[in-house]
Fold this sequence. Notes:
The protein is of the alpha/beta class.
Amino acid sequence: MMARACRSQKQIKWVRSVDKHFLPNRVEPRFFMAVPYVFINVGTVFLWLMKNHVHKLIKQINKHNSFRNNCLNLVTSENLMSPLTRLAISSDLGNRYTVGRINHRWYAGNHYFDKIESTAANLARKLFHAKYVNLQPTSGMVANMVAFYALLQPGDLLLSLRTKDTGHYSHAKNNLLSLFGVRVASLPFDRKEFTIDLEKAKKTIHRKKPKVVLLGTSEFLFPTPLKELRKICDHTGTKILYDAAHVAGLIAGQTFQDPLGEGADMISTSTNKTLSGPSHGLVACKNIKQYRKKIERALVPMFTSNHHAHHVTGLAITLAEFEKYGHEYAVQVIKNAQALAQALYKFGLEVICPHKNFTRSHTVLIDVKKSGDETMRLLEKANIIVNSFQLPWNKISDQTGIRIGTNEVTRLGMREEEMKQIAKFISDVLLKRKSIKEIRKGVIDFRKSFLKMYYC
Ligand SMILES: Cc1ncc(COP(=O)(O)O)c(C=O)c1O
């Protein structure tokens, strides 16, 4: 069954009346018509300069919007917000200070926002099967720092995947962790299976007795063997932190894995990747007594003051949409990723993990065997937007990985059939079967049929 498009005319009219940036529209610089040109004096020159800057900026915004609406946006960490989420983030809430907890703010005027943040927290608790959720981290990176502060002390040992083994740089040695005095050692990674090497991880955990094992990656192909790791960590009293930044939408859609149910002590995540909300973060856990105070203290006064009420509000709307349509969306994202991977593989590209049906998430990984950066730029010329990354067998200087996500194209209503066409565009570029100009024309034509948004 095809998902319902987000097309209630009344709803869209309402959004358009408030948010003219909805989808591919131009921003009308009508404001400038009111600029008085009558006297040449300092004020007029200032207005003229401002007009010039603002005018140029609006032109760039329009160009960007139009370009991205003519592209296949396949970056695994991006997505499209629903019209109502966009409405929320452009509301007055973006101008307000909301420091403090729900019903205990440091500033007056937040009684409506108290209700909004509490609704968002209830929805997030339900979708992530948590007892406590904090929506105040302003990004996934901040959510990680908050979780580190809640779980670790100076001198403690953290085990995490190296960046070359798909770990994120916020999990690595040379960042805030070392400033905290936290020691970091590597979690063994199985390059063939593209997941944690359980046997080796067991030995490392038993030998090193880390305080925390950090799971979750930036090239997240398969669910993590959490239940097995929980058993291993129980022997050493090790806590498990699960970074769900990439797969939060699949988890909220109840299709990937249930980290807290399978034994993680805490989840940290960003909210704008598969979970198509505003750029923000959250942390969630089951044990309120043990972690709530530490999480709150990490936020104020450590990592935030104001926590971007408009983004929390937008996230509340996204979570409400996920409650209704999230499962259907997440299932289709994964089906699309598998269809895309199979088609790319059939065209002769070296897609990672053919023996495991390539992926169980939104992500498809290709080893292009030459500069990933140059390949990414070549695809960009054909209006296909991806990013390059370091495969575990690459040297830092010659990364050959290309990372592709189906999260955004699925929201535009694309399904398995369209994935075959996308695979054709990509392989035409990579295998140099057609001119880039011809492929770009094909992409622009193809994209014209996909301007509505679904699952909201
Ligand atoms: C695994 C992982 N954690 C955290 C982050 C940081 O998230 P954010 O960009 O929201 O700060 C990323 C970024 O892509 C990531 O891949």
